[in-house]
Design brief:
Oligomer: homodimer
Strand order of the largest sheet of chain A: 1-8-3-6
Strand content of chain A: 15-25%
CATH topology of the largest domain in chain A: Jelly Rolls
Largest sheet of chain A: 4 strands, antiparallel
Number of domains of chain A: 2
CATH class of the largest domain in chain A: Mainly Beta
Order of helices and strands of chain A: HHEEEEEEHEEHHHEEHHEEH
CATH architecture of the largest domain in chain A: Sandwich
Distance between the termini of chain A: 56 Å
Largest interface: A-B, 44 and 44 residues
Mean pLDDT of chain A: 95
Chain lengths: ~230, ~230
DNA sequence: CTGGTTTATTGCGCCAGCGCAAAGATGCCC
DNA sequence: GGGCATCTTTGCGCTGGCGCAATAAACCAG
């Protein structure tokens, strides 16, 4: 039965880990499912923070856009992860957008439902604390990289991080499993697509990476790590 | 009685807001007090995340330092705010350091005590969620600024933010109440002290700011806001 | 297969901001 | 009040990486 599978899946997410089975069943009953196609907007920047999602399948991108249209990618999220922190933390509106990169399958709850859940079950609130703590840590590190490192190192770090969280071993090396353009890498590394393109070309020359249209494969991780760590 | 005053103070912090008085009393009894002089290290990067503090008086700086000694300032914190998130979120070690900028007076708890408190009182866990959510929001915005804005705008944003959270109205304008060097501003804006110095000199010329040794006063906030918002 | 769209590459010139270095200002401690 | 440490200013030259622009390659739809 599908619901049963759902319950097991929920029990493995960062949000509901450790919850007793009967609670998971309640949670599952309160949820709704939703599918999105690649490119769809799941959460819109500025909209009321009324929904929280967990990713069942597919890959999403959290971004933040300025008034003048400049965009940065805050992070990518995959199966088991949470989209819509603002709704957890009691924010009024979403500070950024979440876009489907692949075709995606999500499970969602209303903000009020989740907040009530947290109020009734401290364990879930603590899961949220851990999850936000982990995100805060990640983003601190990126802030430091952005402030102190030169572009090449930043791009290297960005790719290594993506390979870590969404890499698949292949004969050619570690392939990032979702489509990732030069522009995307630029928006994660705080640079321009031109500089990313030039950098990747140079690396390709040296056999460190292999890339195609919206594809990146890390052929020689140790060399890329060396670049990421070498001082300016 | 001093304890009574403490309890009231705790009830107004972001961490314990909304807790019933008798719980606050328990919390207060479990706490220890500690004083630090300007320049002292309160939490050391890499140390076991075993303590959480609330600032009673004074001002602190949260930083993160790289292996090669480069430093960024994550944020400043003042009265009522929490130092040592890692201990709340169940992290192993502190990802950054916290340093006293002024002479400071703090109240602290062991990580285990606070975690037990969260587990027993969902309201407190929810306060932590809100607090981490707010920090995450702040840092997202800074990440975007750092990625997309030119230095002058970034410095303007940095100063405006500091004026917002630690500004005092005076005849000369809004004064940032704690000592703040050019180097500090550089480490918050992702630039060098030289560029900060040059920029502030130019602004001083135009009467937008007035500054001295480790002092910054925003004389004409609207003009500074204009700089912060003007497109590149 | 064709035409159109999106994505990637690369040459070229320029300039914002860095890094160095040296001098100057300010505050503190004895 | 004098000496010292810390902090700030400013000139100068250089360069990393941006921005533009034009071309090329890959993909898609019909």
């Amino acid at each position: 039965m599908e619901d049963q599978a759902d319950v097991e899946m929920l029990g493995r997410t960062e949000l509901f880990r450790g919850a007793p089975v009967d609670l998971l069943r309640d949670i599952q009953r309160a949820a709704f499912r939703k599918r999105f196609s690649a490119g769809d907007t799941v959460l819109q920047q500025g909209d009321a923070a009324a929904t929280v999602y967990i990713v069942v399948a597919g890959r999403l991108r959290a971004t933040q856009t300025t008034l003048d249209g400049q965009q940065v990618i805050i992070r990518y999220l995959g199966p088991g992860e949470v989209a819509g922190y603002a709704a957890l933390a009691g924010g009024e509106t979403f500070p950024g957008a979440v876009i489907a990169v692949d075709d995606c399958h999500l499970i969602g709850w209303s903000a009020t439902a989740i907040q009530e859940l947290m109020a009734r079950h401290a364990g879930i609130a603590i899961n949220v604390v851990k999850l936000l703590g982990a995100r805060y840590l990640d983003i601190q590190v990126r802030l430091r990289e952005l402030s102190t490192e030169k572009v090449e190192r930043r791009i290297a770090h960005t790719i290594l991080r993506l390979a870590q969280q969404a890499g698949r071993r292949t004969v050619r090396g570690i392939e990032i499993v979702f489509p990732l353009s030069r522009q995307d890498l630029a928006e994660m590394s705080g640079t321009t697509l031109h500089t990313v393109s030039r950098t990747l070309s140079a690396w390709e020359e040296r056999g460190i990476v292999a890339c195609g249209r919206r594809r990146v494969v890390v052929a020689k991780p140790p060399l890329l790590e060396a670049i990421a760590e070498e001082p300016d």
